[in-house]
Every structure is written in C-alpha cells, then in structure tokens.
Amino acid sequence: MRTPTLSASTRRTVLALAGTAALAVSSFAAAVPAGASTTPTVYSKGGTSWVRSCATLAKGDTMSCQALRVTSTVQAVHPLGITPNATPSGFGPGDLLSAYKLGANGGAGQTIAIVDAYNDPSAESDMAVYRSQYGLPACTKASGCFKQVSQTGSSTLPANNSGWAGEISLDLDMVSAIAPNAKIVLVEAKTASNANLGTAVNEAVKLGAKFVSNSYGGPESSADASYDTSYYNHPGVVVTVSAGDSAYGAQYPASSKYVTSVGGTALKRDSSARGWSESVWSTSSSEGTGSGCSAYDAKPTWQKDTGCAKRTVSDVSAVADPATGVAVYQTYGGSGWAVYGGTSASSPIIAGVYALAGTPSTGSTPASFPYAHTGSLNDVTTGSNGSCSPSYLCTAGVGYDGPTGLGTPNGTAAFAG
C-alpha cells in the first residue's frame, strides 16, 4: 500500500473543485424539484470550507446523503500532497489503518454493500483510480469483485445524479481503504425516499452482503417503526448508518434499533503512544455529527444508558470532520481528487471494520457487539455538538456518549460477535 508523504513544512493550498449538483442550506430543506436553481451554502471551520453534496432534494425524496465536499482549505491538516486533482490531499488508506490499528489487505471472502440513491456513471472507473493511487488490488465488474445494480437487482440503473455521485465515490473509496480484498455491491435506489432506499437495503442482503453501509438520513417520524420492520431488521447482517451532519438531534434510520449508528470525529496526528487523537466533530455553524434521543424508536436491550428512554444515537464513531477529511476520487460532478467529510465517511469505514472482524453468526445482532467489548475501542472524551440535557447526549466524556458512542475502532475486537 502506498501513501504519498511530503515534509512537515508543506502547506496545503486552495483546493477548488467543480460540482454540478444544486445545493441548499440544509439536508432537511423542503423538497425542491430536480434541476431547481439554488445558491450553494458554504460552511467553514478553521480555514476549511465545504458544501453539502446532496442538500437539494428532488421531488419525492425524504433522505439526504451525509457527504460534505471540501471546496477550499489553507491549513496544513494532512501530510498528503498539495496539488488539486493531481496528488490526493486528505487521509488515505494508510492513515486510516494506522489511526484505527487495522491490518492491511483485509476483507477477503467478505461482501460489503453500499446503498445510495440515483446513479453514478463513473463509479467503477473512479474507484479504479483511487485503488491504483494507493496500490490496492483492482476491483472490477469483469472480475466479479464489483457489482452495480438497481434497488431491484436489475442492471437498468436509475437516473444519474452528480450530488449522490460524490456520496457514492466517498463510500466506495472508504470501503476500498479499509477492506481492499472484499467484494463490493453498489445498490442504487431510484429516488432518495425511505421506501426506495429501504428496498435497496433488502436487495443488498438478498444479494448476499453481510455488511451494508447507509450514508443517508432524514427527520424522524411516527412511521419509523414500520420502516424498521420492513427494511432494517436483518439478523446476522451488519447494517451501519450515518448519524447525520447537522449536529445535535436524532435522525432516521440512524435511530433504528436494528442498525449500528455511526457518529463522527475530528482525527489528528499527535505525539501520543497511539499517534492520533480524536474529538467530537462540530462547528460553530450547527454542522457536526448527529446524536441524541429518538422520539419514536424503542431502546434496544443491549443499550444501557439511562438518560434516554428510547434509542440513543450513536453506537460508535470514526473520522467525519471535513477539516480532517479523507481523500476521494470523483469525476461525475467533480474534477478528480477531492477531500470529503461528514458521517458519510464514518459509516462505510465502520462497515469495513466489521468485515475485517469476520462474518456475524446467523441470527446475531451486530449492533450489540461493541457494547460487549468496550475496552477494545478508543474512548473519545472531548468535544460537544450542541446543548442538551442530560449532557452526555451531546457532549463527549469517559465511557458512552451520544456524539461518539462507545468510541472509535482500536483494532477489530469490538466488532466481532
């Protein structure tokens, strides 16, 4: 595995990336007809700016992807490259494996599914560039390693969408980084509705995936219990879901009692024995990892925190801060190498870690696994994503907290049944 490095004195220059998706203020903005004109909203933190990849909802969409695309940065956050669209900036596979104490070349014998909405016509070719850049094995349709299907398993794919293409590239690259020898199935829903994305989850399981990553979310509703039963209740299958990018507040399907809810951190190198440190990802502009107490979904038996009578978000976490983001290669709606963040990064990372830990046993509840191995996680104890009561729902501390759950991977032991 090759990870390009430069001297510590190298500073990253402005990373300007073209995007063709119409973007709006919030991932929960009112539905906007496809093609409507909106002004992109730029968010920032410490000199890094980004936009939401899927903020504008097409008619009928109820879910938004949680991918955040960096548009510019002037800070030397990562020791990787400085030239936009030529050398990748952002954390690469070697960085992520180091931060989370994961072995290289993992995933053999496993199938990981990515569920997203709409189609990315460049998914396979873009993933090939990412994998080649970092010396990862090829994963193609021709070899049987990669499959790209509709929500019904058909080769007739939904309409192209440049915003969701960024999400798809992020998901495929993160699974490639963590579990490069796994097979990958990309299941594309025809719209970003609860029903269509849920149908795509069922199709992913039908196709044999034991690990299904979902990097999308929307407001909770009284219908969530029925969605749980219809789409997310898959014993013996890992279903990871992004906790959200709008700071404190629970989203669905992250609040489903049947999934592993994945929060987000800011990841930085340091001089500690681990070599890395993490804190809650948040900004002053109400951007940051989601967390909170569900208004509708019942509390699973394995979750023991006492400040929330229903399901608490999150379970575990991984890097999501765009200011400490990951390298992604995207050409449909992008112009090559980019830096991405959001809990859309942390969900596929955690799905990949589960795959490294081994296939869950038949009938098991993979979301409960980390709760039986809390000592095998990096406890994140600093940072907050808002104001709340009780405070642990939005503020990190020793042990369990909402924004980062039980912590981040420290090897794979916490993710094995």
UniProtKB/TrEMBL annotation:
InterPro entries: Peptidase_S8/S53_dom_sf, Peptidase_S8_Ser-AS, Sedolisin_dom, TAT_signal, Tripeptidyl-peptidase_I. Residues 1-31 form the signal peptide. The keyword Protein biosynthesis does not apply. It comes from the Bacteria. Residues 81-417 form the Peptidase S53 domain. Keywords: Hydrolase, Protease, Serine protease, Signal. PANTHER family: PROTEASE S8 TRIPEPTIDYL PEPTIDASE I CLN2, TRIPEPTIDYL-PEPTIDASE 1. This is Peptidase S8.
